[in-house]
Amino acid sequence: MCVAYPGVVQSIYPDLERILPLVRKPIQYVGGELNAAGKPWDSVSVRWALMYPDAYEVGLPNQGLQILYEVLNERPDVLAERTYSVWPDMEALMRENGIPQFTVDSHIPVAAFDVLGVSFATELGYTNLLTALDLAGIPLHAYERTDEHPLIVAGGHAAFNPEPIAEFIDAAVIGDGEQAVLQLSDIIRDAKAGGRATREELLDVIAASGVAYVPSKYEVTYLPDGRIQRVAPTEGSTPWRVSKHTVSDLDQWPYPKRPLVPLAETVHERASVEIFRGCTRGCRFCQAGMITRPVRERSKATVSQMVQTSLDATGFEEAGLLSLSSADHSEIAEITKGLADHYEGTNTGLSLPSTRVDAFNIDLANELSRNGRRSGLTFAPEGGSERIRKVINKMVSEDDLIRTVAAAYGAGWRQVKLYFMCGLPTETDDDVLQIARMAKEVIRTGREVSGRRDIRCTVSIGGFVPKPHTPFQWAPQLGWEATDARLALLRNEIRSDRDLGKAIGFRYHDGRPGIVEGLLARGDRRVGAVIEQVWRDGGRFDGWSEYFSFDRWMTAADAVGIDVDWYTTRERQLSEVLPWDHLDSGLDKEWLWQDWQDALDEVEVDDCRWSPCFDCGVCDQMGTQIQIGPSDGVGLPIVAVTS
Amino acid sequence: MARRTPDREYIPPVQTLQVRYAKRGRMRFASHRDFQRAWERALRRAGVPMAYSAGFSPHPKISYAGAAPTGAASEAEFLEISVLEVLDPDALRADLDDALPPGLDVVGIVEAQGSLVDSLVASRWRIEWPVPVQDAVAAFEAVATVEVERVTKAGRRMIDVRALCSDLELPSGSTLEVTVRHAEPTPRPAEVVAGIRSVAPDLPDVPVLATRLAQGSPVAGGVAPPF
User: Are strands A415-422 and A376-382 parallel, antiparallel or unpaired?
Assistant: First the structure.
């Protein structure tokens, strides 16, 4: 098996070139990016097509995909190419002209690869997976596939509950992908070398290895009331639970070393360097923070080196220091000062997204903007009232926030953006209305300390979606009507004071897309029928408001007999078997439940980086440990800069 | 307290260089904005000491002369850069070629003597159809005037594409080579094709491949480059 592609493997570019003049932004389909790999097809034994199931402009900058692309291509016996979702204008022309889903590197049909690896950052990419499979000529359902077809492997954060797409994928990798893709490559190479392994036999080996979760090797049974009775492996060799992968010592995995530089305009035009992975702040709504534990920092020497290599290899004007909460790196002050000194006067920008609300953060921001403009700063208090922030464990007091913002306006920043969520567990109208009070106080204080009237504050708010592997996995999601009503109340409250209100911007996402995200996030295998029906009804690019149709999702759910409320607004009990219980994120279910009870009691929990372990279970279960500084060695400057 | 003045002082350039480059293969689909970004990054990667404009958001000083439209390939694109140190054009050419993505290729670099725009008065284009075009081209050559409408933000204007086209040749039955004089506005290859179709309605409306072969001064049967 793997893959007895029935056609001749060749580039479809000559056919593509004929239709490219007819599509919008043709550059996104031609590849040829700086630093793209180009390995001869016949030089390797295992071939991966890596997909980000969204448009090129969103998918290309994705760090996960770029890391795997480089890790795989560094292996002499493996090659990886990339493919992205095509826009509907391109899809129509491809169908008309018989052009299959292709990779942008060598324009090889995706169906000719051994593996199609798809990275899901969000559940709203599921319909785009079906478009790609269909365009590739690969059957939508795993059971329809034969030895001729690639393995379809899902990854990314959404893969921590892949049950809604269980019938469309062959396997899912849970957790960090760097080592997992190499292990999978080994298994596939050995199966191909043997020559006789069938698709079924290969999936057996993968399932038994625990490297990836193979949904078809598990049977789900249900109780009369619709809840899951149990999820059990169908064969003795298959483990009951599949564990997430955790890469330790990120200094040994300094990828991407040569970031891709697209010709086309994309959402992030910068060299991104991940300064640490994981977060133990313990925000209860945050799936990313829960499933990526423990915290593993890169040393300051590695970070400096990666920034320099990336900028040199790309020519980007800006480097971003990424993580879930970048100001929390134990050596962040030294890192930012070192970089700011090194790049002073070079027209190179440095940015620190994902920051927290305190004065230290302003010092960092000031450092990074030393020779640039101070335009806007972003903070995420997430909840409007002190009470709700205790529920979600976002430990920031109103005084802290006002002090921080005052420091920002005092240092010359003109605009502050505040992020919030609506529909958090136990939330009342009053919790949300306090956002307006906070925003007004921000403007009042800002005008006072800056002595200016042209400062602004923007409130950005969206509906909260409960996610698997978090303490809120049992919580009822707020219905979209209630979410929209609360957002309308907030809007009126902000506008109630004309003088302060005009300095406050209000941006919100209405509640309906969140309900679909909620259905897909906490769905089980039965939800797959809704995804397929929506796709057949024309559902594409559900993450884009101009393509998303709430009615299409609700009509499809009705048609296949799925009760959306049961999956979204229903509260679960401890005894209920959750669709993702057999996928082990390391978090102890009892601990998660206790944290959920603490949330309801408004009890906060500390960060285990600077307080004793609170037994979330991850390090014990996964054999991992927190890795933080101080690190040896020095950061920049490595060489003197002259210019 | 707010910063109101640019921190970078303006430093005047000491040298202006003219670059001729090609846009080949897949790069034909790069838009003007796309290859502008590619050039800015390549200049940074190559460590070229660019002069920047003054102001709050300084930009490297690059000026593009009449870039080929998205979808058209070219052997003869031109731009000018201003730099803060005197550079050797040949060394710069090698550095830039390394830093550019494949398909954007430097053909030549010279130190500016005169105005680049003034030296680019016509282009030689090759247009390839998937169907025969002898009759259509003959019909086009037989008339003196063919007007094509261009709709812009400013309104509609008519362009006499026939009057600006000369030296038509057919290297094959489905390929036309033609010299197009630059004017205000200069006809694009798609407008030349539209002009031909307006006198030969039987020619199907199919995508064509257009390539700018040369840019410079018109000479018999072609166009001579400025360098």
Answer: parallel
- Rounded CA-CA distance A26/B56 in Å is 33
Which residues, in sequence order, are CB contacts of A58 under 8 Å at separation 6+? Answer: A52, A266, A267
If you write DSSP's letter for every residue of B173-206 in order, what string do you get? TTEEEEEEE--SSPPPHHHHHHHHHHH-TTS---
Q: Does A634 touch chain B (CB under 8 A)?
A: no
Looking at this predicted complex, what is its ipTM?
0.86
Q: How far is residue A532's CA from residue A606's CA, in Å, rounded to a whole number?
A: 43
Domain residue extents for chain A: 13-217
Picking from A29, A33, A372, the nearest residue to B101 by CB comes out as A33
- φ, ψ dihedrals at B95, nearest 5°: -65, -45
Mean pLDDT, consecutive 10-residue segments, chain A of 643 residues?
Answer: 73 94 95 92 96 98 97 98 98 97 98 98 97 98 96 98 98 98 97 86 96 98 98 95 96 96 90 95 96 96 95 91 92 92 85 73 80 74 95 90 88 90 97 96 94 94 97 98 97 94 95 98 98 98 96 98 98 98 97 97 92 90 90 54 35
Domain B15-118: which topology? Alpha-Beta Plaits (3.30.70)
Q: Where are the domains of chain B?
A: 15-118, 120-224
Q: Residue for token digits 């001579």?
A: B224
What's residue A359's pLDDT? 66
Strands (E), A490-547: 504-508
Please report the pLDDT score of residue A373 as a whole number.
Answer: 62
pLDDT of residue B57: 74
Cβ atoms A390, A604 nearer than 8 A: yes
Find, among A532, A540, A520, the residue nearest to A144 by Cα: A532
**Residue closest to B106 by CA, chosen among B68, B73, B77:** B77
Question: What is the distance between the alpha carbons of residues A451 and A459, in angstroms, rounded to a whole number?
Answer: 22
Q: What is the pTM of this model?
A: 0.93
Work out the end-to-end distance of chain B between its first and last CA atoms, rounded to an integer number of angstroms: 52
* CB-based contact B196:B137 (threshold 8 Å): yes
For residues B178 and B166, the answer to whether their CB atoms sit within 8 Å is yes
- Please answer yes or no on whether A263 and B3 come within 8 Å at the CB atom: no
Longest dimension (CA), chain B: 72
Chain B residue with the nearest C-alpha to that of A38: B102
Contact between chains at B207 and A22 (C-beta distance less than 8 A):
yes
Give chain A positions within 8 Å (CB) of B41: 34, 261, 314-317
Question: Which residues, listed in sequence order, are joined to residue A243 by a DSSP beta bridge?
Answer: A584
CB count, 10 Å around CB of B183? 14
Q: Which two tokens stand for residue A430?
A: 């009053």
**Domain A13-217, CATH class in plain words:** alpha beta
At A610, phi and psi to the nearest 5?
Answer: -130, 20
Answer yes or no: are the C-beta atoms of A403 and A383 closer than 8 Å: no
Nearest CA in chain A to B103: A32
The gap between the terminal CA atoms of chain A, to the nearest Å, is: 58
Q: How far apart are CA A331 and CA A215, in angstroms?
A: 42
> Which tokens is A601 given?
């009691």
Burial (CB < 10 A; 0-12, 13-18, 19+), residue B163, is: middle
- Tokens (6 digits) for A174: 């849970």
- Report which residue type is found at A345: G
Q: Would you mind telling me the total number of residues written for chain B in this entry?
A: 227
> CB A30 to CB B26 under 8 A?
yes
CA atoms within 13 A on the CB side of B94: 4
Neighbours of A466 (CB within 10 A): 27
